[in-house]
Design goal:
Helix 1 crosses helix 2. Helix content is 75%, strand content 0%. It has 5 helices and no strands.
Length: 159
C-alpha cells in the first residue's frame, strides 16, 4: 500500500520552493548591503552630528570601550574591533542617542523653566477651630458586646 504518490509535480514544487527561498535570501542580502553602503557614506556626517548635538554621548561610548578594555582586555579588544567593523551602525546609533538625548533634555529644560517662571500661589481656605464642633464630633457612644462561645468560634463568626 502506497501512502505517497510520486510524480513530476513534487520535484517541480521542490525546485520552485528552493528558487523562492534563494530569491528571498538574495533580496535580503542586497537590501542589507544597500543599507550598509548608505550608512557607510552617511556615517561621517552622523558622527559629526552626534558630536554637535550632544558630544557627551560619544565621549561616554569611548569611556565605555576603555572601561571594557580595563576590566577584561579580550572583551575590550573584541568590542573595539566590532566598533571598527560596524562603524556605520555605531555612528547611526550614536547620532540617534545624541538626537534623543538633546531632544529630551531640551524638553526637560523647558519644563523646568516653566515651573520656575510660574509663581502662582495655591488657593486655600483657612479652617477655624470650633470647640463645640470637636466635642460634638468626638462624642461617641460605647458599645459593649460580650463574646459568645470560645475564641475559635468568634474567629469564624460562629457562636
Amino acid at each position: 500500500m502506497t501512502y505517497f504518490k510520486t510524480d513530476g509535480n513534487s520535484t517541480r514544487n521542490l525546485i520552485l520552493g528552493l528558487v523562492v527561498v534563494f530569491a528571498v535570501i538574495l533580496g535580503v542580502y542586497f537590501i542589507a548591503k544597500g543599507i550598509f553602503t548608505l550608512l557607510y557614506w552617511l556615517s561621517p556626517f552622523l558622527l559629526i552630528g552626534a558630536l554637535l548635538l550632544n558630544y557627551n554621548v560619544v565621549v561616554d561610548y569611548v569611556k565605555m570601550l576603555v572601561k571594557l578594555f580595563k576590566q577584561n582586555a579580550i572583551v575590550g579588544i573584541v568590542a573595539m574591533v566590532l566598533t571598527a567593523l560596524a562603524y556605520p551602525f555605531v555612528a547611526a546609533y550614536l547620532f540617534g542617542r545624541a538626537f534623543f538625548a538633546s531632544k529630551f533634555s531640551g524638553l526637560l529644560f523647558n519644563k523646568i523653566q516653566e515651573k520656575k517662571e510660574e509663581k502662582s500661589f495655591t488657593e486655600y481656605e483657612e479652617v477655624t477651630e470650633e470647640e463645640d464642633f470637636e466635642e460634638e464630633f468626638l462624642d461617641l457612644k460605647e458599645i459593649k458586646k460580650e463574646p459568645q462561645g470560645n475564641e475559635y468560634d468568634n474567629l469564624f463568626g460562629q457562636g
